[in-house]
Specification:
There is one protein chain. With about 240 residues, this protein is α/β, with parallel strands linked by helices. The chain contains 7 helices and 7 strands. A 7-stranded parallel β-sheet has the order 3-2-1-4-5-6-7, with helices on both faces. Helix 3 links the parallel strand 4 and strand 5. The longest helix has 29 residues. It binds NADPH dihydro-nicotinamide-adenine-dinucleotide phosphate.
């Protein structure tokens, strides 16, 4: 059996929810995993950096530290995100700024930072966690959907630009996944949303994580610029 070299993986928001499941999958594979989030979780097998991904100077410092330690960065998973619902007419400027800063601007900044290091080794894989809402839209979530729609178009352009450097860029667009993020959705509303899912159920963080690990792997060596739905057949 071929012994695979340990890969260096960075997962933003890896302390809970989908990110935690992603960390678990990579760690179980024997990879070296780094987590960046504002609070420490209970993730096993990962090195934790406490930071806000909006702090770009700090992100630069963290990525430099990781590169110095390992002489490479193989995989970046831009997973951290927030969702703040508001109807058009009621959206505050703070709501717009915060969601775009965390969900979109930081994805662009971190892609820039990581790709500079990946270029040195002519190899890398970047996976952005978008959302089904960025594809379909949703009433009450216009800003969130715009932040994720922007991530989707950024993913496509970045894939085109970075292919020549051996870097693949893809996005995963999850449907409704059981995490803290959807805790606030009222039961009736959730019931209606589940009725629109072909499989008639919500998804698990592990189901997203396995897709991310596949996209990051050499098994996906000819896949770039794709938006992979993990949504139980909600978008067909
Ligand atoms: P959770 O709310 O469970 O987790 C969000 C993660 O993002 C936490 O680890 C949080 O850590 C981190 N995070 C948020 N803001 C920042 C910040 N400023 N700096 C650093 N870390 C931050 O959400 P999910 O696991 O459900 O969501 C993960 C991703 O999946 C998000 O991008 C979300 O939009 C997307 N998604 C989720 C869906 C779902 O149904 N759950 C569906 C579609 C997409 P901390 O607060 O400690 O900083």
């Amino acid at each position: 059996m071929k012994v695979q070299e340990k890969r260096v993986v960075i997962v933003t928001g890896g302390n809970r929810g989908i990110g935690k499941a992603i960390v678990h999958e990579f760690a179980a594979n024997g990879d070296i995993v780094y987590v960046i989030s504002r609070h420490k979780g209970e993730e096993a097998g990962a090195v934790f950096f406490e930071a806000d991904i909006r702090d770009i100077a700090k992100m630069k410092e963290i990525l430099q530290t990781i590169y110095k330690e390992n002489k490479k960065i193989d995989i970046l998973v831009n997973n951290a995100g927030i969702m703040e619902d508001a109807l058009i007419g009621m959206i505050s400027s703070e709501n717009i700024l915060e969601q775009f800063q965390i969900n979109t601007f930081s994805v662009i900044e971190l892609t820039q930072l990581a790709s500079r290091f990946m270029k040195r080794n002519k190899k890398g894989s970047i996976i952005n966690i978008a959302s089904i809402i960025g594809v379909m839209g949703n009433a009450g979530q216009s800003v969130y959907s715009a932040t994720k729609g922007a991530v989707i178009s950024f993913t496509k352009s970045a894939a085109k630009e970075l292919s020549g450097d051996g870097i693949r860029v893809n996005a995963v667009a999850p449907g409704i996944i059981q995490t803290d993020l959807i805790d606030h959705v009222p039961e009736e509303k959730m019931k209606k949303r589940i009725e629109n899912i072909s499989m008639g159920r919500t998804g698990l963080p592990e189901e997203v994580a396995k897709t991310v690990v596949f996209l990051a792997s050499d098994d996906a060596s000819y896949i770039s610029g794709q938006i992979i739905g993990v949504d139980g057949g909600a978008v067909i």
